Amino acid sequence: MIRPKSFGYNRETAGSNFFQHIPESEVQTKALEEFDRAVKAISVSGIDLEIVNDLDKPELPDAIFPNNWFTTHPNGTIVLYPMMTPNRRAERRSDILNLLAEKYGYTTTHDLTHHTRANKYLEGTGSLVFDHDQHVAFACSSPRTNSDVLLETCERIGYLPIAFESVDRDSRPIYHTNVMLSIGENIAICCFESIIDKDDRNGIEQFLRKTGKLVIPINLTQMEHYAANVLFCKNKDGIQHAIISDTAWNSLDYTQKADIESMAKPVVVNIPVIERYGGGGIRCMLAELF
């Protein structure tokens, strides 16, 4: 997780992220308070966190969302991704990569950032939702998720790509797949309503169910409240947790909450300022380290 120093409304990304809103005043202080509360709630659950401070310069309004510029993988690999906007590309930091290599032993780096020269983008586990057990990568098409880069990424890491189109209630492309889909070891949350093609919708649901997952469908309103922007992970004792915001949690009905609780212990965090003005949720704030 990156502790922010310049959090705010990112004008460069607003054209494709319709979850962002323009603040009426400075929001860094409130975002920092939310970040620290989230860290405490997650840590209390026994989940290991690596916290890195944002840099003073340059000012990076989206640095709090590190999951978009790199991913790590169980085989000791790091992948670096081509980000759509210049101020997001500036989030990449060699000191963080050195820390990951030295402390966690990552030995191979796949650098895909050269695709920005051809205006082709893919933004980490925003664009990609991995099912690591099945070696599959789900990706909905958007200005930030290019099919060519998707295919190359999957070739590099040995995953099968599943691409589809997903839109919001105004028929605009969902900017990141992790807004409408999350996958855990034995559970998945998906806004099937947002998937345009009926065959894609049915195929994805059947795949998830056939792999033994409890599938929790959500509607468009719940998606807009980040109900699919969830990270499933295990704590030090091997207990699966669902890290979810209270905005998302409160949008769910009793049955949906009970289904999540049957598979994972919820860690509910309060981050309304980050969600509203950053256009990203708690899952976006967490870059997994395998």
Task: List key phrases describing it.
290 residues, L-arginine/glycine Amidinotransferase, Chain A, three-stranded mixed sheet, 30% helix
Summarize the structure.
With 290 residues, the chain is an alpha/beta fold. The protein has helices at 28-44, 86-89, 94-104, 124-127, 147-157, 198-210, 220-224, 246-251, 254-263, 272-278; strands at 2-3, 52-53, 70-73, 77-80, 108-111, 129-131, 136-140, 160-164, 181-183, 187-190, 214-217, 231-234, 240-245, 265-269. The chain contains ten helices and 14 strands.
> Strand-residue fraction?
15-25%
CATH superfamily: L-arginine/glycine Amidinotransferase, Chain A
Please tell me the CATH architecture by its name.
5-stranded Propeller
Query: pLDDT average, as an integer?
Result: 96
Shape: globular
Helix percent reads: 25-40%
Strand order of the largest sheet: 3-4-5
Largest sheet: 3 strands, mixed
Query: What is the H/E string?
Result: EHEEEHHEHEEHEEEHEHEEHHEH
Let me know the number of strands: 14
The CATH topology label is L-arginine/glycine Amidinotransferase, Chain A
Helix/strand/pairing category: alpha/beta
- Poorly predicted ranges: none
What is the count of helical runs?
10
* Oligomeric state of the chains in view: single chain
Radius of gyration: 17 Å
Termini, distance in Å? 14 Å
What's the number of structural domains? 1
- CATH first level: Alpha Beta
